[in-house]
Amino acid sequence: MKVALSTRGFAGLLLVLALAALTLLPAAAPRAAAGTGVSGTGAAGAGVTETSVSTIAAALRESPVYVDPAASAQLSQADAHALQKKIEDADKPVFVAVLPAGYPTENLFTDLRTATGVTGLYAIRLGDRFDARADSSVLPTAAVRNLVTSVRGESDAAAQLNDFTDRAVANMGGSAPTGWGSPDRGGGVSTTGLVTAGVLVAVGGAGAYTLVRRNRRRHAQEQRAALERLRVVVDEDITAYGEELDRLDFHPAEPGADDAMRGDYEHALDAYEKAKSSMADATRPEDVRPVTEILEDGRFTLTRLAARRAGEPLPERRPPCFFDPRHGPSVADADWTPPGGAARRVPVCAADRTRLADGRDPVVREVDTDYGRRPYWEAGPAYGPWAGGYFGGGLLPGLLVGTMLGGLMATPSYASDYGSGYGDFGGGYEGGDVSGADFDTGSFGDFGDFGGGGGDFGGGGDFGGGF
């Protein structure tokens, strides 16, 4: 009898919530329709002057997608609405403009970013060409470059913009600007939430309760299995780091040691202990991310200590070697093409840089999978937090585009199971905030070799250069 009462109470609560949501739907629907941004003022389609940048910027402040009237054949209203909803549901500051082929391109990105005044990722489809720019606080230049390159070969506008958006929202940091006022955020009601509530009520309280419990148990089992697989890899990393400490053979009282050296050594020792204790306390796969962040910081500290002892210039802070973070901080970026994938620049250690220059394969970190030992980027989604701790700050998306792990991490199920997308690893992102013209114009140069099949990005990720 107690069970029956509990079940009826659960179903009743769902019913009340669903009815309350339905009463809000009429108020939310007009806002969703009004914010499509799929049409622009100006008479470009009538053969008069093109739509001004100010008009485009004003539309983007209200909605993430703008389709110029003269470019309406490129992206249908239905496709634009779907793209808008995808971006708003992701709650990311992605701005998409679809413009006619003849639209002036000089300083277009810089002018559009200035006029919009909101930090974010700006993508422009201009005729059959495509390019993007981003504030570095949202997504690093190298990541933007690799994401653009990954979709440049797609001729269909809807497919290209959706593929780019799917990868971008999973990779970048920040939140959507509040000016969009999507009903899915704030006090509004999402269509997905209404449908879900309706389905649960229809199934019935008892059935819904049973389903939720079963899904939770299965999810918990999957999380435990993923964590155990990760534990093996992280324990190997911690052991390797401890061996590096031993090989350094530093003694605080040794001749020539100064306070800076002793401070580095103490920091490195603390990192070793923190990594061990954090891994011992981990209960979910996403708890691994802070552990590898600690190890990455510790390895850089060891590199700095070694430079101090040798009387050499202090090294710049760089990400670990992409092929195996145990190799330590990278010394340069090198071109590399994974089997069956697109070329990209990755951070490499000195030894792997030499191997690549000689035409040899790098020494790759392999992990256990259901199909045997495989490179970590061809393993399951559980390795996302592990990699994200090493390659935080938005670097990871550009490195993993086109790989199995990159594809898995870009899916909603990954974000649900293992925390946020890999662009959020490392934290500190700001996006969607109003900054006006106060931003780094180095990330918003002219179009460069716009639409040039991968393009010459002006050397090392500088997007300047113009046509």
Low-confidence stretches: 1-8, 24-36, 38-48, 182-189, 410-429, 448-467
Shape: globular
- Order the strands across the largest sheet as they lie in space: 1-2-3-4
SSE string: HHEHEHEEHHHHHHEEHEEHHHH
Please state the oligomeric state of the protein chains shown.
Answer: single chain
| Cα-atom radius of gyration | 25 Å
Strand content: 5-15%
- Overall number of strands: 8
- Provide a count of the helices: 15
- The chain-level structural class is alpha/beta
Main sheet makeup: 4 strands, mixed
How far the N terminus sits from the C terminus, by CA atoms, comes to 76 Å
Structure description:
- With 467 residues, the chain is an alpha/beta fold.
- It is built from 15 helices and eight strands.
- The strands form three sheets. A four-stranded mixed sheet has the order 1-2-3-4, with helices on both faces.
- Helix 3 links the parallel strand 1 and strand 2.
- The longest helix is centred in the middle third of the chain and has 44 residues.
- The N terminus and C terminus are likely disordered.
